[in-house]
Amino acid sequence: MPEEVKAAIDESLAKLKKEYDIEVVDRIPFHGGQRRLPDKIWRINLPVEISGKAEFLDVYMVFTNSFPFDMPAIILPDDRFRYLPHISSNTQKLCLYEDGIDYDADNIYGLIRDNLDKTKHWISFYTSRDNTDEYAREPASYWAEEYDGEDEVDDFWTLIGNIPEHTCELKGIFYVMKDDKNGKQHFEFIVAPTEESGVLDYISDLHETKEFDALFLSSFEKSVEPPFTLTGRSLVQRLKDEDDKNRLKKYINKHGGGYILFPIGTDNFAGGVHIIQQKCNRSGFRNGIITPYIALTEFDGRVKKIPRLLVSIFSDSRIAERTAGVMMEHRKFIIAGLGSVGSNLCYYLNGYNNAQFTLVDKDKLNLDNIGRHLLGFEHKHQYKVSAVSKYLKEYRPDREVLEVKTLLQEMETVQINNADSIFICTGDIMSERWLLQKMRNGEVNKPVFILWLEPYGISGIMLYVNPEDKESLERLSKSSLIGFENYCLISPDEYKDAEKLIKRDAGCNGKYAIYSGNDVTFFLSAVFPVIDQLMDSPTKSKCYRWVGNIDIAAEKGIGLVSTEYLKHMLQEIEV
């Protein structure tokens, strides 16, 4: 902490001592003991109003080294407040400000005064009212708290799909994950209804998993206020449907314990409990008399707290809510050619929260591709379609991604027309001509985007071809066999001496154009807003040319077409 901040804190202390009984301490009362902290701590004997009565209360203010750019912590080590809103029942730290609040960090005395005023208001306000509305507003936050010495709530749980509307069994898998921060390991649990089991299969291919069965009970009703601890008996009492009670009994007796999930008042999280294996063999009772269910509800399980779970919901609606705010229009993309341009284009298209992908490429990723490809060393020698598919599914394991390990020309026309938009990034003029011929003949009727970069990243070109624009299709189909040279920034004459523009490795297929990963990013960043607009509002066919490394063209004496341009501008050219 800077010396000037320490001085400002001491100055504030001197001012406030005229009004309050304050002392500097080095520890805080904590759960019947003392907790020593390395930070600067004040004990303030604060006049407050509790449930309408005036009294003095010891409040602790903790200044960390990041103060004043981090608010001081207010600790209330008085158990009367542990279950009120906006206080941690474990640390007993108050939450007085919203995350991301902007405040004057130079006014240290004002910050301290404001914290004290808010603390007094919080105590007066929340001790004199019914707070059930507060708990209902943020049910997951209060469910995740630890109460009365229970075990930490296990939040390493995910439910695939929306919360079930009815009681049902769920399929589950779990696997070991390592925490990157401290190296500790934990179990990650994924559950899903039968219709979402494909996601479990995908995850099982990535990890060494074990399977289990869970039970979701829809009639569970949690208490309206903390503490939210549960015992075997109280779990049964909170089930409002007799069939659910029977389902629970049958499940526990079958498995000896297990995982029970249920709603907690929000669409974004579910609650649950982990019922450990019940002890049924007890002295004084014949074998088989005490079932797991009886042990849970009648013996020590009757009063013993059950470890609770917090389950995050992974669904289309949840992802949409946390991204665009709404579910986007369903889109189906074909991306043919997963080299530098095609693979990185997938990164941009991945932002649509309701998209389906068909990936087309017959090649594997080799080390030469890595410098400007979306993927890296870990994916070498894998088929590009498989590696990019894995990348997309790492974001959304529920996403539909079709892998086609062939040439575009080998795809069925029906399959091509199933897409909403077709992106051609092959750099292969013949596959482009094949598709344009199909469009000209009326066999392919979906819009096409053809994208490529010129050597040295001197420009990037995107041809948008609308199948309804018959005149442009006619003109494009008659273009020179050299390629779409009319749209390039490099002069057509330069392409007659192709060796000037390319590099070669050994072998008959060893030629390649030079441009960097940055060039790919600049190009796609320029044209992607146009792609998004054209998918929503189609126009006539058009060419968009991004102006790139024209300085390299001048340096190497590469002739450019006669036009006005500035680096990184996007030009529109009629087709």
Automatic annotation (TrEMBL):
Record-linked InterPro entries: Prok-E2_B_dom, ThiF_NAD_FAD-bd, Ubiquitin-activating_enz
Pfam families registered for this protein in UniProt: Prok-E2_B (PF14461), ThiF (PF00899)
Domain of life assignment: Bacteria
Molecular function GO labels: ubiquitin-like modifier activating enzyme activity
Domain THIF-type NAD/FAD binding fold per the UniProt entry, residue ranges: 330-439
Gene3D superfamilies membership: NAD(P)-binding Rossmann-like Domain
Domain (Prokaryotic E2 family B): residue spans on this chain: 29-147
Bilayer-spanning residue ranges: none
This protein's name: ThiF family protein
Natural source organism: Xylanibacter ruminicola
